[in-house]
Design a protein that fits this description.
Helices cover 54% and strands 12% of the residues. It is α/β, with parallel strands linked by helices. It folds into two domains: 109 residues, Rossmann fold; 79 residues, no CATH class. The chain has a five-stranded parallel sheet. Helix 1 packs across helix 10, helix 2 packs across helix 5 and helix 8 crosses helix 9. It is globular. It starts with a strand and ends with a helix. The structure holds cytidine-5'-diphosphate.
C-alpha cells in the first residue's frame, strides 16, 4: 500500500505547524515543515552575503539542501523568514525543493507535510488535505503572544503589518501561490484552540483511514 499522506497548507502563523506535529505524533507518521527548506536556502545565501534574487544561484543552493539537517532553531529567525518568502517565488528553487519534499512524502507508513502548496502541487494525491487559516489579526496576536512567552518583546502592529505583507507575497506569486486545493477541508481556527482544531482534523483523517482500510 502507498504511504498515507496528509497535506497541510495555510498562511503564516495559522497554526498549521503545531497541527502537523501533533498529527504526525498521534498517527506515528514522519513530519516535514517544508517552510524550513525555503528557509535553509535563504539562510545559506544570507550567510555568504549572496543576493536573494539570483535564480540560478538560489536554485543551486536549493539542490544542496539536506532534509535531514534542517535545524528549526537557527532557521526560525524573522530575517530568515522574510528572505525565505523572497527565494520562494523562484521556480528553480521550488523545483529543486519540491522534488525532495515528494521523496520524503513516500516514507512509510505515512507522512505529514505542511507548507503553502502541499495539497496543490507537492502532493496532489494526498489522502487528506487540510487548509488551516485564521484572520490576520488573530494570527498576529498569536505570534505576538508566542514571542512574549519566549521572553522577547514584540510590536504587535508591526507583526500584523508583516503578516499581511507575507500573505500578499505568498498568495500573489505566479508559481504555486498559496490557495486551498479544491478538495481540501477548510479549518478556520480563529475561534478554535489547538485541541479543538486537532479534533476537527482527526475526524477527517480517521474517516480517510477507515475508507482506505475498506471500512
Ligand atoms: O512559519 P512561517 O509562516 O513564518 O513561514 P514558513 O512556513 O517557515 O515559510 C517561510 C516562507 O517560505 C513562506 O513565507 C513562503 O513564502 C515559503 N514557503 C513556500 O513558498 N512553500 C512552502 N511549501 C513552504 C514555505
Amino acid at each position: 500500500m502507498n504511504p498515507f499522506v496528509i497535506a497541510i497548507d495555510g498562511p503564516a502563523a495559522s497554526g498549521k505547524g503545531t497541527m502537523a506535529r501533533r498529527i504526525a505524533q498521534a498517527y506515528g507518521f514522519v513530519h516535514l515543515d517544508t517552510g524550513l527548506t525555503y528557509r535553509a536556502v535563504a539562510k545559506a545565501l544570507l550567510a555568504e552575503g549572496l543576493p536573494l534574487d539570483d535564480e540560478a544561484l538560489a536554485g543551486e543552493y536549493a539542490e544542496k539542501v539536506d532534509l535531514a539537517a534542517l535545524d528549526r532553531e537557527t532557521l526560525s529567525t524573522h530575517t530568515v523568514g522574510e528572505a525565505a518568502s523572497k527565494v520562494a517565488v523562484m521556480p528553480a528553487v521550488r523545483r529543486a525543493l519540491v522534488e525532495k519534499q515528494r521523496e520524503f512524502a513516500q516514507t512509510p507508513p505515512g507522512a505529514v507535510l505542511d507548507g503553502r502548496d502541499i495539497g496543490t502541487v507537492v502532493c496532489p494525491e494526498a489522502q487528506v488535505k487540510l487548509y488551516v487559516t485564521a484572520s490576520a489579526e488573530i494570527r498576529a496576536a498569536r505570534r505576538t503572544d508566542e514571542i512574549v512567552a519566549n521572553g522577547g518583546t514584540a510590536d504587535s502592529a508591526a507583526i500584523l503589518e508583516d503578516i499581511r505583507r507575507r500573505d500578499e507575497r505568498d498568495m500573489g506569486r505566479t508559481d504555486s501561490p498559496l490557495m486551498p486545493a479544491i478538495d481540501a477541508h477548510l479549518l478556520d481556527t480563529s475561534e478554535m484552540d489547538i485541541e479543538a482544531a486537532f479534533q476537527a482534523a482527526k475526524a477527517y483523517i480517521d474517516e480517510a483511514l477507515a475508507k482506505r482500510n475498506g471500512g
